[in-house]
Amino acid sequence: MKVDGTPYRTIWLGADGRTVQAIDQTLLPHRFVVRDFRTVEDAERAIRTMVVRGAPLIGAAAAYGMALAMATDPSDAMLARAHALLLASRPTAVNLRWALDDLRALLAPLPSAARREAAYRRAAEICDEDAEICRRIGEHGLGEIRRLKPRQGERLNALTHCNAGWLATVDWGTALAPIYQAHDAGIPIHVWVDETRPRNQGASLTAWELGKHGVPHTVIADNAGGHLMQHGKVDFCIVGTDRTTRRGDVCNKIGTYLKALAARDNGVPFYVGLPYPTIDWTIEDGHREIPIEERHAAELSRISGRTESGEVVAVDVLPEGSPAANPAFDVTPARLVTALITERGVCPASEAGLLSLYPEQARAA
Fold first, then answer.
1. Which of 1, 154, 251, 353 could join 166 in a cystine, given CB atoms 3.0 to 4.6 angstroms apart?
2. Which of 322, 325, 330 is nearest to 294 (CA)?
3. Domain 2-130 listed as CATH 3.40.50.1820
4. Which of 219, 213, 207, 288 is CA-nearest to residue 247?
5. Is 90 annotated as a binding residue?
6. What distance in Å separates the CA atoms of residue 326 and residue 239, rounded to the nearest whole number?
7. What are the site positions for Transition state stabilizer (predicted)?
8. Alpha-carbon distances of 117 from 121, 137, 238, 323, rounded to whole Å
9. What does residue 52 show for φ and ψ, rounded to 5 degrees?
10. Which of left, alpha, beta for 232 (phi over 0: left; psi -120 to 50: alpha)?
């Protein structure tokens, strides 16, 4: 995707062939800054503090973190240490574990001298694969959008939650990839962008990247979605996911479940865009089995913004001494999901639906 005419991915290998570079998403939309990661500790910190975020991007950053570890010390001890360090950085997104296990399985049998090159090569492959996967999610989602053609002279209105665009992946995005492809195909489409408290990823990130691509959009308060659906102003909802169970339960940013309930009550299709590494075939019941990350209360009690003078400041919004709870995700049960949009096609949110696209996983049933 492009930023002011310049194409970017969210993460890439620097010109020196060793340093990893990524867009610092904690500073958007007010500042566009590229960060350098030179050690596995840099990568872990970036994931933990959400300099990089979004399940597919977390996986890519973790893969590069393993490469940075091997560039420092390709020993068995460092391989084990890097895997454990990165795995503990974020507990909910399953792509993290997938990428780390992939790298460990590749590197463990190799002699130490071969690990650095192999790790960097595989990390780059994971990034390229993610970009292609998201492009194909966009193609399959575009087919669904075409079936929702607007009436003459009207536009299609989508509602999304959090950020599942190219900033959450390596390129294109998951939930936003179909919207970008619809816009590029000339379909009149407009996006209602949930602000997505407490970190405001919708207002800060989704609105920013939609604007850079020229997609019409309007930021709304998180609580406005149901009202818009009641008044016929939402044609479909589309969100991403950090972990999806084998039976189709979807774990996504806190507040997604409420949007799904409102969509069901108002007959609005509710789609989820996801790549295959986000499917956790080892679990069935998302409500009972997915660990929900509890993040620091300061994310809820403090908010940053730009003053009239252009200065970016953080301010407290809660009464002094008031405690705050900050669960980062919730689980939307499969029964509320109209369909899952994957790189292999569109399927019902069910075990049978997922196995129709990924029959090789039937052996794990």
1. 1
2. 325
3. no
4. 288
5. yes
6. 20
7. 162
8. 6, 30, 39, 48
9. -115, 140
10. left
- Is 242 a known active-site residue? yes
Domain ranges of the chain: 2-130, 151-364
CB 23 within 8 A of CB 33: yes
Residue 201 labeled ligand binder: yes
363 is in an annotated binding site: no
Q: Which of 83, 81, 240 is nearest to 176 (CA)?
A: 240
Note the Cα 182 to chain centre separation in Å.
20
Interval 159-218: pLDDT, tens: 999 999 999 999 999 999 999 999 999 999 999 999 999 999 999 999 999 999 999 999
CA distance 107 to 119: 7
Q: Are 25 and 50 in contact (CB under 8 A)?
A: yes
What are the start-end ranges of the E strands in the chain? Answer: 2-3, 6-7, 11-13, 20-23, 34-37, 156-160, 189-194, 217-220, 236-239, 243-245, 250-253, 270-273, 279-280, 302-306, 312-316, 329-332, 339-342, 345-347
Task: Judge whether 266 is annotated as a binding position.
Answer: no
**DSSP classification of residue 91:** S
Whole-angstrom Cα distance, residue 307 to residue 298?
20
pTM: 0.93
Cα–Cα dist 205/301, whole Å: 20
- Taking Cα atoms as reference points, which of 196, 203, 210 lies closest to residue 165? 210
User: Radius of gyration of the chain from Cα atoms?
Assistant: 20
Q: Is the C-alpha dihedral spanning 93, 96, 99, 104 positive or negative?
A: negative
Q: Say if residue 353 carries a ligand binding annotation.
A: no
With residue 170 as reference, give the H or E element that holds it: none
CA pair distance 134, 183, nearest whole angstrom: 16
Q: Which of 171, 242, 280, 330 is catalytic?
A: 242
Q: Is 283 exposed, middle or buried (0-12, 13-18, 19+ CB in 10 A)?
A: middle
55 known member of a binding site: yes
Q: Which CATH class is domain 151-364?
A: alpha beta
Q: What is the DSSP letter of 2?
A: E
245-275 pLDDT, tens digit per residue, is: 999 999 999 999 999 999 999 999 999 999 9
First to last CA, the chain: 38
